[in-house]
Structure formats: structure tokens, C-alpha cells
Design a protein that fits this description.
Layout: E1 2-7, H1 20-26, E2 31-36, H2 50-55, H3 63-82, H4 91-103, E3 113-117
Parallel strand pairs: 1-2
Antiparallel strand pairs: 2-3
């Protein structure tokens, strides 16, 4: 199982053939992709250096919110897949509920994008 969390504005720092979208497209296992709106590549870090901030764009979503969404997404993914508490047929419903919870963490007007595939694979 794979969870991929990316920042909408990360394209300036991650090569096109090695970014989160590329990994999602190539995945064959159960995969959930969460794209945080208006988030840059280094906003996922607890601490950023001056070099980090000067090289990659930062978005309007606050750093703390980017990290909160990332942590919540990882816990949701673990609850749905890794702990295997539900049959594969329930995964899409559970991830939709998780997406609603993640959306609630974002500032008003920001829209989270989530995609999933191969959820019925055990």
C-alpha cells in the first residue's frame, strides 16, 4: 500500500519524472494520493533552512496546516489499509470520510484533491 502526499506548488523543486504525480501514476498497489492546495515542497518539513525557502516556492497554506494535513492523512491511510480493520470494499468509503476530515483542516476556500486506485487489491 502506498500513500502519496504532495504540495500543489512543488513542481518548481521536484523534477517532472520524479514527483508525486509520477509516483502515483506508476503505482500498482493500493494507492491514495493527497494533494495539499497552495503548498510548496519544503512546507512539509518541521524546520526549513534559508536555502530551502529561497529555492522552492511556499504557498498560501500555512506550514503548520500542511504538516497537520500530512500527519492526519498518514494516520487515516494506516487506519484504512495497514491495520486491515475493514474489508477492501470499504476502503473507498473510508477514504472519502478521511478526505472530508482533512478538508476541514484547510483554510476556507482551499480545496484538497484526493485520488485513489487499486483499492480492491489486498
Amino acid at each position: 500500500p502506498i500513500a502519496i502526499i504532495g504540495g500543489e506548488l512543488s513542481a518548481d523543486c521536484a523534477p517532472r519524472d520524479a514527483n508525486y504525480a509520477h509516483f502515483y501514476d506508476a503505482a500498482t498497489a493500493p494507492t491514495w494520493q493527497v494533494v495539499v492546495p497552495q503548498a510548496g515542497h519544503f512546507q512539509f518539513l518541521d524546520e526549513q533552512s534559508l536555502l530551502d525557502r529561497s529555492v522552492c516556492a511556499a504557498g498560501r497554506t500555512p506550514d503548520a496546516t500542511v504538516r497537520a494535513v500530512s500527519r492526519a492523512a498518514m494516520v487515516s491511510w494506516a487506519e484504512v489499509l495497514v491495520r486491515r480493520r475493514r474489508p477492501p470494499g470499504d476502503r473507498a468509503r473510508l477514504l472519502a470520510a478521511a478526505q472530508e476530515q482533512l478538508q476541514a483542516l484547510l483554510p476556507t476556500g482551499a480545496t484538497l484533491r484526493c485520488d485513489s486506485k487499486n483499492l480492491l487489491v489486498s
